[in-house]
Amino acid sequence: MSTALENLVKNAARKADAQEAPAGSPYGVLAAVPENPEAAAELGLSAPAPAPEPEPAAKPDAKSRAAAILAAREKLEGLGSFSPDLPPEPAPAAPAAPAAPAAADALPFPEYADVAAGRPKDAREILKDRSLADLQAALAYEKAHQARARIEKMIQAQINRRSREAGTTATAAAVTDAMGALDDGLDAVGTDAVAEAKAAAQDPALAPIVRPGGSAYYPRHLSGDLTDVELLRRCRQGGHPVLLEGFPGTGKTALMEAAFGADLITVEGNGDTAAEDFLGKWEPTPGDHGMEYLWADGPLVRAMKEGKVLFVDDATMIAPPVMALAYPAMDGRGAIHLSTHSGERVEAQDGFFVVAAHNPGAPGAVLAEALRSRFLFPVIVESDYKLCRRLGVDARIMNFAENLRTQRSEDMATWAPEMRELMAFHKAEALFGFDVAVRALLGAVPDDARDESAEALSNALGRPVAPLALS
User: Fold this and answer.
1) What is the pTM of this model?
2) Closest by alpha carbon to 102, among 69, 61, 77?
3) Which of 96-105, 137-146, 271-280, 369-378 has the highest mean pLDDT?
4) Least CB-packed of 38, 176, 245, 311 within 10 Å?
């Protein structure tokens, strides 16, 4: 017997022992035939014909692969868990039920199977064309059923992109919810909700404050974490008068109302403001014996007696001798005498506080040194254009406003739209549409600045614009 044949027999016996087969079983020899064709020929055995190679199976499409993945995952999740230290007890044999393919209508949208099974590039192409509602449904489905970080990240990126295109940033879940409200047609309310939710999520100090009239005021940062509202409140506690400087419509009155609410008493200053408009006067009042004259305290006296805040709007329009009547109450004396009311002495109670407003460039407005020196905290108030964008004011109008403000700072323009005009435009657009709102905005421009503003607005929109006019 040749060496090759001896080796064949030995190997066959060894394999037979390992398989608990009888020694010398022909099954052992046959099992070794493919290992040594020479020895097989010597024994007169022939190797079995090689089995034909199976034809490659057709590659399933992406949707079938996704359905199979979903079915396999559901099957695995149904197996439960076991301890790694102890082998699981054998389960009784039972015919395995075939896994049902995932129903197409259970997916957020029919093409979602391609997202799950396709290449990342293909998935992004599918997602970028879906509506925001589809994207939100896909994200919810993925979190609830799949929890695949790569797919969730891809969907969230598309939601963020859609939110930025709508003029918001989806940095908080509340922003995404508000965008859903926008899809339902809640235009102005929806954009307010976006800004409100974002402000509250990022910094509670920037959350909107409801003014007495019901509208919202959004605090603004002055320095570090200090907001304009907080500065005014702290200055009141310390007894430090504040001077607010800013063009009309920048939000000075709104700031005061947000900071002090019902504690606020206002004097509207102008060139005709007289002493009695501050201190008070005798007013005719019907009585038992005809008309009687009774004394009525003025805003300054009421604020002093009640410990409230006196806001002198357009203080620099008031004649300096009249404005000087408030100085004794503001400095260390903290008291005034009413010569027209029997010399009554009025002392400022705790909480009394004075804030004055100055509109630079207003005809007749003079910020005298005597007035400036009484206010230790001058604060420049400008319109918050970032907030206007967040609240949904059209980007073209905001670009127009920012360009005019830059030109005004360089003395190349005399007017720029402020917060008041921009929010009025936003409300008019919701009521009447963009075209009417634009023409109304131009009609609000002062006469001496209308031509230059019309030219700037026409350039921003790429077409001529004229104010509203009856024809």
Assistant:
1) 0.59
2) 69
3) 271-280
4) 38
Residue 338: pLDDT band with limits 50, 70, 90 = very high
Confidence tier at 184 by pLDDT (50, 70, 90): very low
Pairing of strands 216-217, 209-210: antiparallel
Amino acid, res. 86: L
Residue-by-residue DSSP string for 233-256: HHHHHHT--EEEE--TTSSHHHHH
CATH of 224-380, one of 1.25.40.20, 2.60.120.10, 3.40.50.720, 3.40.50.300: 3.40.50.300
CA-to-CA separations, 20 to 14, 34, 100, in angstroms, rounded:
10, 21, 41
Q: Where are the domains of the chain?
A: 3-42, 224-380, 385-461
Higher pLDDT, 22 or 278: 278
> How far is residue 200's CA from residue 362's CA, in Å, rounded to a whole number?
36
pLDDT band at 41 (very low <50, low <70, confident <90, very high): low
The token pair that represents 198 in the structure block:
């974002």
